Amino acid sequence: MTRTDQTAGDQPRRQALLEALRGADAPQGVTELADQLGIHPNTVRFHLDALVTQGLVDCQLQKPAGRGRPRTAYTSHPGMDRGGRRQYHLLAKILLGQLSTNPDAGAAAEAAGRNWGGYLVEHIPPSHQIGVAEATQRLSAMMTDLGFAPEPDGDAAKRIRLRHCPFLELAEEYSSTLCPLHLGLMRGALTEIRAPITATSLEPFAEPDACIVHLSRTRTAGVGARAHNRRTRST
């Protein structure tokens, strides 16, 4: 029997112990639980230790009524069981489906992405001015953290390949909503760090193994560069 099979077989007994503790009016000892469930005390103790480690059960030492050792008693930890299944994929589908009903779903998704992009990117001091290379690096760092596996092209100021999509299955079904949201993330991040570049578009599945983000220098950056050149020539 593999460890995985053994762990799977442990679950019914642990669940039975947990339900017994939840239904008890007072803290329970190992012997009481073993008698109630017809399980050997050592087996009960083993599963209780695991439930305590998982944070599902609390244990405490109780002073004996007379002579003897303190009694270890167990109670279920208050609160909802955190060991159950998660359905975040379903939640994402529900939210994307609702967002897709917007008359201009792409614009709404892009706006939502902008707000979060400004929040997720690493902020910089107001006095710090960044160049194209640093802006691309900071954008790539954020997208790496989000799981997109970005790969700047030869000219980083022009485009970035996204080698992985952490929402691939959803993007295949809701690309008209999810891809603008991703574009908004990048635009919001670049705006937040006052970058001299912006993300102009995102081509989903432009290559067999990548989406392509197109970048361009902002007009403000060009004006600033020309002003700097004029000052340099005049000195």
UniProtKB/TrEMBL annotation:
This is Putative ArsR family transcriptional regulator. Residues 63-82 are annotated as: Disordered. It comes from Kribbella antiqua. Gene3D superfamilies: Winged helix-like DNA-binding domain superfamily/Winged helix DNA-binding domain (1.10.10.10). InterPro entries: ArsR-like_HTH, WH-like_DNA-bd_sf, WH_DNA-bd_sf.
